[in-house]
Each structure stands twice: as structure tokens, then as C-alpha cells.
């Protein structure tokens, strides 16, 4: 039985790539004569179908071959069937893998989704016409609809469709019953994949087309500029120092050791994980600004300078410490530089000027101590301000805080007191009885927060739970 | 001419460097149990992207039919919803302040919507068109403030934008095909990000100069997702070649492959647990595989979604992760 060539059919897009390039490899190894699934004759009522297997055979083979659980095996097997690489002989209308004695067969490669035969309207019409003739008009709902639709759409070739259908049915009658059943099932499975019934997942569906950008063509303009950039890139790549593997590996070990106790998924969290117990105490206790931070949090500030600086509470404590050392302007300078780096393009001049006045100008109230070379370069740079003009100075001050102030902070009485006063929340176990589930309270959205100073209104806002807002058209 | 090979370059450890070499020195993981704790239903079509708010419970999600929804995923309440004028909204991001969201897709743009609870205000009215590409928007992310956005596009480029003016601040050329994903480096000193594309390459960029600093090409197919390891010294990738990989930036090479013969569908989205010990990866076979980053083995497989997992992010405090799927739902796992 062959698929007729397209004759004047409308241009259809090529079928999508098989979702999984590895599926073919898997199918081939499943059919390996030595290590593949043991195929036998399967009985379908009174007919014997050769080269078939049971659903159980498939599941067991996957479990043995890949060392996976039954659940995973069944899931994987189902995907293989849904993609049409294996089809059921009994109940061929649903592409489902049953882990029992149900008979299955491997789909002929002719019909594989990766073969990329375009499943044309004409082919589908002939298939439906055959079914219509055989079942004397008793098609299932969606097939009936499709049949009528096609009849309208390609009415001009309908005589050809019916003729082909009749011819194929006639040729099929000359085959053994077993072969006829197999061919029918193969075809049925093919069309279930290529024309899924409404409600069934369309396994061939892909996202938006990729690789339709023209960058490749542009890149391949191998002109002077292209090669200059390539040479520059390679020069830099060769000059870059690569760290020894042993050092990198040590890095992973150290990071793992430090952070795993702080990883809620790995180590749990106290008093409990809000998602598991519906108790939000954990979030309340670890809010950006609390009076008494938890022990884990304060410990984390000791891991590296970044942890201290990037925690709003840690940063506030750092500021307190720097004030005592009369170097608080360093942190303020660093923050101002961040504002420049990530601020609006339109405010660059304004921010640069503000930084200069506050921190860099001779006699500035919060003058920062930068080395003369960097200061010179920076002052020159701010004549043509841009968002990265403070980078050098900012890095200098950052390193000062990190190498100088931070180690002292960790040894300070301030930090030691924080550690001593930090709390370890007691554990709350998950409630056993589901009907005693805690009410899940909403929290004020960050989008509700009003500008600072409006504290009275803020208090009011906080007690109002945001209600669902009706959808708005764009 | 350039002397070749450079004298100081030692051809050391070409094939021996792999993270799993430390496997014996790392404690084994105990019983691993993660379940769906919330299911967010409300999208009428495939969920394509999601992002967490810094408040650790709110999220924004976008879908094929153009809908963008902001949820309090703890209560599962929807708080905001807007319909984009285009379909396939493949990118969305929450602003650091929590006061705005960004999104885009087949409209080739990235737009910013301020979030408002004022019933008299139409959220769509305050919409700001920020980024303009010549092909679909595949990913977007705010930098350290609400005022800058980084985008990746099917036009093969990434770009940095000033939100207020819509001005292009820097563009990044180098990928030979569609860029599908990006992630900003966690460091507060550096200014780098990594991108992955249909050219099978992962590229690390200097945001200031627009130059590519490092490039990695070991995948056999499109890279759908890239995510930095929490220390910032490495990043993971997920690809249509059904593998996830770990690239070390200091050693300048791939140092681990996360794959299994039974996993034959592409990985669409990856993210690390807080400590970086676990890598969660969502796949096109509807599952989520959990990998032990250091030992290289698979810890667990999570079932639940009824179609492709298209997006996956760990929450800001690491207490859970969220997955979005073509089955129209999002799930919170913990």
C-alpha cells in the first residue's frame, strides 16, 4: 500500500522535527534482535499477528534496560506510543500504553514522525474516504466533521480521492487478514498523531519557528571587522589565566559545605517551610528588616563580604560599624555609584554631579579616600559623564571595605553581639490532619507600598488584602 | 606573527577535569521528597515563562494566548492580569521593586507594565514599550533596578535598554542564530551575563563593552536555558539535546554533563537550589529531573504536569521552585 504523490496539493509547511532526536535510537535498540524486546505472535481474537509484544513486555524492557522505576517506564512508554512509534493492536483508537497483556507493534519507519512525509490534506482525505466506505458512513464525530470539511475544500479532486480510496481497499482485500489488521492499525496510529482528535494533545506541536533570523548571513560577512574582532577575542582568550582544576573543585566543595545548611530544600528551614505547613512565620522572621535576625542569617554574613552587603539588614549593621570607624562615607559612596550604574539614562549628569559634590570635590563633606591615580582618572572622566564613569573609584572603595573594614567587622563586638542575640526558631511540625489546615493569609503587595513618609496611609493599606483585579485588554 | 603554541600554556588535564571527581568527598543525599504544594490554574493556554517577585511569594507568568498574570502563589490569588496584543508571550520578568513587570514575545518587543491596584486605572494604559528587536523576544530580565532591562531575541542579539526612555544602551552581537535565554551574573561587582542560543553556544558578555568574554560550544542542539551557579563561578545549561551541562568560568570549560539514556527529550528550563547542590530541570517529556550537581547523578524525577514543562525558577529564598507548563498550569514544589 502506498501513499499517493501530491497532485496540485496546497503548499503545506514541512512537519515539525520529532520532539526527541533520541527516540529513534531508543526504538532501534528496542528492536535489537539480541537485546531488544522479545517479539512473538499475539492473538487478536481469532487472528494471529506476528512480530508483536505486550504492553507489559515494553514496560519491563524499559525498566531493565535503563534502570528506571515502573512509573518512569510507563510514562516513557506512553510518550513513545503517543508519538506513534509503537501502536496498540487492540483498541487502536487511543494511543495509550497499558502495562498488561494488550498487544502492541512497532510502527513502520515509513510512518515515523521524523520521516517528514508531509501529511497532506489529500492523504488524509483518502484515508477518511476509505474508512467512510468501509464503515458505510459511520465515522466517529471529529472524523465525520473533517471528512465534510475536506469534501468542501478539495472538492475538485474528490473523484480522484474516492478512486484512490476504492483502489486501496481493493488491494487490501487481497491480503491476509493479519496483514490487513496491521496495515489498518499502522495507518490509524499515523493519523492519530498527525490529525489528533479534539481534546487530545498534539505531540507534533512546536513553539514558534526558530532559525528564521538573518544573523547567520550577516555574521558570515567575513570582512575586516569580523576578523579583527575574532583576533581580539582569541588574543584575550589566550591571555586569560585559567584556574587549575584542583582549585575549582575545592571551590565547589567549600561552597557546598557552607551553603547546604542554608538551603531550605536540602536542609529544611525553621520553624517550617511556608509552602509545606502554610505557616508564614519563616518569612516574617527573615523579612528584609527585622529587629532580631536569625542565627543562620547572621552566620551567613560571615561567609563573604557580598552576603553582608547584599542583605539590607546586614548592610545596615555594616553602616553602624563603619560609623564607629569614621568610614561610613565609603558605603554611601558605593551606594551612590550603584545608583549611577543602574539608574535612568536621563539622570546620569545629575547623579554624577551629586556624587562629585558629596564625595570627590576638595573639601567635600563626605570625602572618600581614593588613591591619587584613580581620583585623577575619575575627575577627568566626569568631564564627559556616563554611567560607568565611577567604576574604578567604586571598585577601589569596594575592595577597601572588603579587604579592610569587613575582616574587622567580623571580629567586632557589634558582630559578636549580633551572633549571640540571634534567634534559632523552634520547629513547627506539619499539621497531620488536613481539615486543620491553616488559613492562607495574603500579604500586602510590594506594588501597594507608598513612598516613605506616608506612614499613616501605609498602615491602612497593609490591612487591606489585594482583591483580584478584573482583566484589562492591552 | 603570533607564536604558537604559547610557551606558558600547559596542556594539562584536558579530559580529566570533571566535577564528579569530588563525588566521594561529598555526602550522599538522603531520601528526596518534593511534592506539588500549589497548582495555579487560570491561564487558558500554554504557560511559557514565569518569574518570581523578590517578596518570595508573588510570581508573574505569561502564556501563548497573550495573557500575563501576576499571582500571589501562596494563596493562589490572581492579583493582576493583562492581555498582550500578541500571542506567544515567551518572556516575562518581575521588577526588583515588585512594582512592575516586563514581557514580550512574537511582537518583537519588551514592554513594561507598572502594577497598580487602582480600580480606576487601566494597567494597559501605562504600558511602556522599551525594547525593539527584529524578531521574537525570547527572554528578558531587569538588572539591579527597575530602570534597566536586558533582552534576548530570535534576531540573534541581546540588548540592554534604559526603561524610562527606551534607549538602547548596549547591544551584544556574536550568536550565529536565535538567542533563546539569558541570565545575569549574581556578583555585585562584575557586569556580566550569559546567553544561550540555537547556534548551540553559550556566551558570556561584558555588559559595559558589549564584548563576548567567553564562549562554550559543547551542546549538540539548541540551548533553551542558562542559569548561574549561586557562587557565580559557573553556570548550567539545558538543551534540546536532552542534556544539561555545567560550565566553569574560571577553568573556562565544561565540567559536568547531566544526562541519562532514558531521558530523550529536550531540557527546556534549569535552575539551582540555593546552595547549588541541586539542579532542577524541566523537560519536554512533561517531567522535572532533579540532579545532584556535584555527583552528576539524578536524584529524583517529578511527575505531575500533563504537557511540556516550559519554564522553571527557584524562589528567591530557595524554599520552593515553580514550574510552568504547556498544560496551562503552574505548580509550586517544595
From TrEMBL, chain A:
Residues 436-474 are annotated as: Disordered. Residues 455-464 have a biased composition (Basic and acidic residues). One of its GO terms (cellular component) is cytoplasm. The keyword Disulfide bond does not apply. One of its GO terms (biological process) is G protein-coupled receptor signaling pathway. GO terms for molecular function: GTPase activator activity. Residues 304-419 form the RGS domain. It holds the Pfam family RGS_DHEX. Keywords: Signal transduction inhibitor. PROSITE patterns: DEP, RGS. Residues 33-108 form the DEP domain. This is Regulator of G protein signaling 11. It comes from Phasianus colchicus. The gene is RGS11.
Automatic annotation (TrEMBL), chain B:
CDD domains: WD40. SUPFAM superfamilies: WD40 repeat-like. Pfam families: WD40_Gbeta (PF25391). The keyword Repeat applies. GO terms for biological process: signal transduction. Keywords: Repeat, Transducer, WD repeat. WD repeats lie at residues 40-72, 130-171, 172-215, 216-257, 269-301, 302-334. Belongs to the WD repeat G protein beta family. This is G protein subunit beta 5.
Amino acid at each position: 500500500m502506498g501513499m499517493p504523490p501530491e497532485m496540485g496539493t496546497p503548499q503545506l509547511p514541512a512537519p515539525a522535527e520529532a520532539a526527541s532526536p533520541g527516540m529513534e535510537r531508543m526504538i532501534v535498540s528496542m528492536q535489537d534482535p539480541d537485546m531488544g524486546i522479545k517479539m512473538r505472535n499475539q492473538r487478536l481474537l481469532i487472528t494471529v499477528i506476528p512480530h508483536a509484544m505486550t504492553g507489559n513486555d515494553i514496560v519491563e524492557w524499559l525498566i531493565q534496560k535503563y534502570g528506571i522505576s515502573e512509573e518512569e517506564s510507563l510514562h516513557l512508554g506512553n510518550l513513545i506510543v503517543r508519538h506513534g512509534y509503537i501502536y496498540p493492536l487492540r483498541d487502536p483508537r487511543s494511543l495509550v500504553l497499558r502495562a498488561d497483556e494488550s498487544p502492541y507493534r512497532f510502527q513502520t519507519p515509513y510512518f515515523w514522525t521524523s520521516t517528514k512525509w508531509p501529511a497532506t490534506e489529500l492523504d488524509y482525505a483518502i484515508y477518511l474516504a476509505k474508512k467512510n466506505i468501509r464503515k458505510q458512513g459511520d465515522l466517529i464525530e471529529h472524523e465525520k466533521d473533517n471528512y465534510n470539511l475536506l469534501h468542501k475544500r478539495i472538492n475538485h479532486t474528490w473523484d480522484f480521492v474516492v478512486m484512490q480510496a476504492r483502489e486501496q481497499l481493493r488491494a487490501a482485500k487481497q491480503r491476509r487478514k493479519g496483514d490487513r489488521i496491521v496495515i489498518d492499525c499502522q495507518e490509524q496510529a499515523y493519523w492519530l498523531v498527525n490529525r489528533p482528535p479534539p481534546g487530545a494533545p498534539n505531540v507534533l506541536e512546536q513553539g514558534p519557528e526558530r532559525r528564521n533570523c538573518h544573523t547567520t548571513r550577516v555574521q558570515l560577512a567575513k570582512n575586516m571587522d569580523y576578523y579583527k574582532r575574532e583576533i581580539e577575542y582569541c588574543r584575550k582568550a589566550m591571555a586569560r589565566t585559567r584556574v587549575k582544576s584542583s582549585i575549582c573543585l575545592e571551590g565547589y566543595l567549600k561552597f557546598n559545605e557552607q551553603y547546604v545548611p542554608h538551603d531550605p530544600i536540602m536542609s529544611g528551614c525553621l520553624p517550617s517551610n511556608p509552602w509545606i505547613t502554610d505557616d508564614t512565620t519563616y518569612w516574617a522572621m527573615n523579612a528584609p528588616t527585622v529587629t532580631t535576625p536569625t542565627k543562620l542569617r547572621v552566620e551567613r554574613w560571615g561567609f563573604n563580604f557580598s552576603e553582608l552587603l547584599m542583605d539590607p539588614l546586614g548592610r545596615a549593621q555594616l553602616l553602624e560599624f563603619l560609623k564607629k570607624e569614621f568610614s561610613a562615607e565609603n558605603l554611601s559612596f558605593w551606594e551612590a555609584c550603584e545608583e549611577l550604574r543602574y539608574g535612568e539614562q536621563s539622570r546620569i549628569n545629575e547623579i554624577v554631579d551629586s556624587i562629585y559634590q558629596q564625595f570627590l570635590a576638595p573639601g567635600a563633606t563626605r570625602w572618600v579616600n581614593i588613591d591619587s591615580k584613580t581620583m585623577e582618572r575619575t575627575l577627568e572622566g566626569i568631564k564627559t559623564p556616563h554611567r560607568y564613569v565611577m567604576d574604578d573609584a567604586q571598585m577601589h572603595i569596594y575592595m577597601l571595605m572588603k579587604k579592610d573594614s569587613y575582616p574587622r567587622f567580623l571580629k567586632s563586638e557589634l558582630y559578636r553581639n549580633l551572633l549571640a542575640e540571634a534567634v534559632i526558631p523552634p520547629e513547627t511540625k506539619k499539621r497531620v490532619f488536613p481539615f486543620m489546615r491553616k488559613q492562607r493569609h495574603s500579604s500586602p503587595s510590594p506594588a501597594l507600598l507608598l513612598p516613605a513618609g506616608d506612614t499613616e496611609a501605609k498602615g491602612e493599606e497593609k490591612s487591606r488584602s489585594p482583591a483580584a483585579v478584573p482583566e484589562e485588554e492591552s | 606573527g603570533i607564536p604558537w603554541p604559547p610557551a606558558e600554556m600547559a596542556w594539562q588535564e584536558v579530559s580529566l577535569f570533571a566535577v564528579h571527581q569530588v563525588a566521594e568527598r561529598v555526602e550522599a543525599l538522603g531520601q528526596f521528597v518534593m511534592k506539588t504544594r500549589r497548582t495555579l490554574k487560570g491561564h487558558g493556554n500554554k504557560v511559557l515563562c514565569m518569574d518570581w517577585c523578590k517578596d518570595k511569594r508573588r510570581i508573574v507568568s505569561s502564556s501563548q494566548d497573550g495573557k500575563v498574570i501576576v499571582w500571589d502563589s501562596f494563596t493562589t490569588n490572581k492579583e493582576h492580569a493583562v492581555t498582550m496584543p500578541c500571542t506567544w508571550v515567551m518572556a516575562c520578568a518581575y521588577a526588583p521593586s515588585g512594582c512592575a513587570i516586563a514581557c514580550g514575545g512574537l511582537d518583537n518587543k519588551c514592554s513594561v507594565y507598572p502594577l497598580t491596584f487602582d480600580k480606576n486605572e487601566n494597567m494597559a494604559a501605562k504600558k511602556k514599550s522599551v525594547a525593539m528587536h527584529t524578531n521574537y523576544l525570547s527572554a528578558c530580565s531587569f538588572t539591579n533596578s527597575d530602570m534597566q532591562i536586558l533582552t534576548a531575541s530570535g534576531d540573534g542579539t541581546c540588548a540592554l535598554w534604559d526603561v524610562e526612555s527606551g534607549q538602547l544602551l548596549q547591544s551584544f552581537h556574536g550568536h550565529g542564530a536565535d538567542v533563546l535565554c539569558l541570565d545575569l551574573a549574581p556578583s555585585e561587582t562584575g557586569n556580566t551575563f550569559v546567553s544561550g542560543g540555537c547556534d548551540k553556544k553559550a556566551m558570556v558578555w561584558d555588559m559595559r563593552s558589549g564584548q563576548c568574554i567567553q564562549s562554550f560550544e559543547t551542546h549538540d542542539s539548541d540551548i533553551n536555558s542558562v542559569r548561574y551557579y549561586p557562587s557565580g563561578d559557573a553556570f548550567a545549561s539545558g538543551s534540546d539535546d536532552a542534556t544539561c551541562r555545567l560550565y566553569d568560568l574560571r577553568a573556562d570549560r565544561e565540567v559536568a554533563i547531566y544526562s541519562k539514556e532514558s531521558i530523550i527529550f529536550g531540557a527546556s528550563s534549569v535552575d539551582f537550589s540555593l546552595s547549588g547542590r541541586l539542579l532542577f530541570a524541566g523537560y519536554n517529556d512533561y517531567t522535572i529531573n532533579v540532579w545532584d550537581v556535584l555527583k552528576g547523578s539524578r536524584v529524583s524525577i517529578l511527575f505531575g504536569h500533563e504537557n511540556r514543562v516550559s519554564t522553571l525558577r527557584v524562589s528567591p529564598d530557595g524554599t520552593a521552585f515553580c514550574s510552568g507548563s504547556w498544560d496551562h498550569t503552574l505548580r509550586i514544589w517544595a
